[in-house]
């Protein structure tokens, strides 16, 4: 079975974000990035319904995985948040050892450990995204989502790269939908 079909089977029925061809391409690109990098450990900041987690872990099933999400903490629509969390946990049960820390990333001073690959897709404010980038700064790779649609995300990436000039190489990866910025630590 193809990745897109497998992901559609795991789609939360009540999700207002539907599994369109654009959405499938969006997740396939994330899958392909992780398949090419083959990180030993993955941290995802902003799990939501678990679709990116499925993309990453399908591409690299032996990777250690930690998802960080506020879950139902500080969320206006508790029903939607609860449904997203339930869907994410159902997906992650397929991958032994995958864990989720139900916490707002803005409350963390550091990640529990150093991860090779960190995916940033939680707080889309300038301050929130910059905080999450700083949490991830010991990683080998950082993939930032929503680069095309989030001016505050773009500004946070710019400020992170300026603050750590010479330490990171940035590569824009279009997906025809929301856009990604892949940051690779320079050796």
Please sum up the structure shown.
38% of the residues lie in helices and 19% in strands. The chain has 187 residues and is an alpha/beta fold.
Determine the CATH topology.
Answer: Rossmann fold
Shape: globular
CATH class: Alpha Beta
β content, as a range? 15-25%
Radius of gyration (CA) equals 15 Å
Overview of this protein structure:
- The structure is a single chain.
- This protein is of the alpha/beta class.
- It has one domain (3-185): Rossmann fold, CATH 3.40.50.150.
- Helices cover 38% and strands 19% of the residues.
- The chain contains six helices and seven strands, in the order H-H-E-H-E-H-E-E-H-E-H-E-E.
- Strands 3-2-1-4-5-7-6 form a seven-stranded mixed beta sheet, with helices on both faces.
- Helix 5 links the parallel strand 4 (117-120) and strand 5 (141-145).
List keywords for this structure.
globular; alpha/beta; 7 strands; single chain; seven-stranded mixed sheet; 187 residues; Rossmann fold; 6 helices
Write the layout of secondary structure elements.
Layout: H1 3-9, H2 21-37, E1 41-45, H3 51-59, E2 64-69, H4 78-92, E3 99-102, E4 117-120, H5 126-135, E5 141-145, H6 151-163, E6 168-173, E7 180-185
Parallel strand pairs: 1-2, 1-4, 2-3, 4-5
Antiparallel strand pairs: 5-7, 6-7
């Amino acid at each position: 079975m193809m990745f897109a079909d497998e992901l559609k089977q795991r789609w939360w029925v009540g999700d207002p974000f539907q599994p369109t061809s654009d959405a499938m391409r969006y997740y396939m690109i994330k899958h392909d990035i992780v398949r090419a990098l083959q990180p030993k450990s993955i941290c995802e900041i902003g799990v939501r319904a678990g679709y990116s987690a499925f993309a990453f872990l399908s591409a690299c099933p032996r990777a250690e995985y930690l998802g960080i999400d506020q879950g139902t903490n500080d969320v206006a629509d508790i029903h939607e948040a609860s449904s997203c969390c339930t869907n994410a946990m159902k997906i992650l049960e397929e991958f032994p050892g995958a864990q989720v820390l139900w916490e707002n990333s803005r409350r963390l001073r550091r990640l529990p450990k150093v991860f090779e690959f960190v995916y940033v897709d939680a707080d889309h404010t300038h301050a929130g995204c910059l905080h999450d980038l700083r949490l991830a700064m010991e990683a080998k790779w950082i993939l930032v989502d929503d680069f095309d649609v989030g001016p505050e995300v773009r500004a946070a990436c710019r400020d992170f790269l300026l603050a750590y000039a010479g330490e990171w190489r940035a590569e824009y990866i279009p997906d025809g939908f929301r856009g990604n910025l892949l940051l690779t630590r320079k050796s």
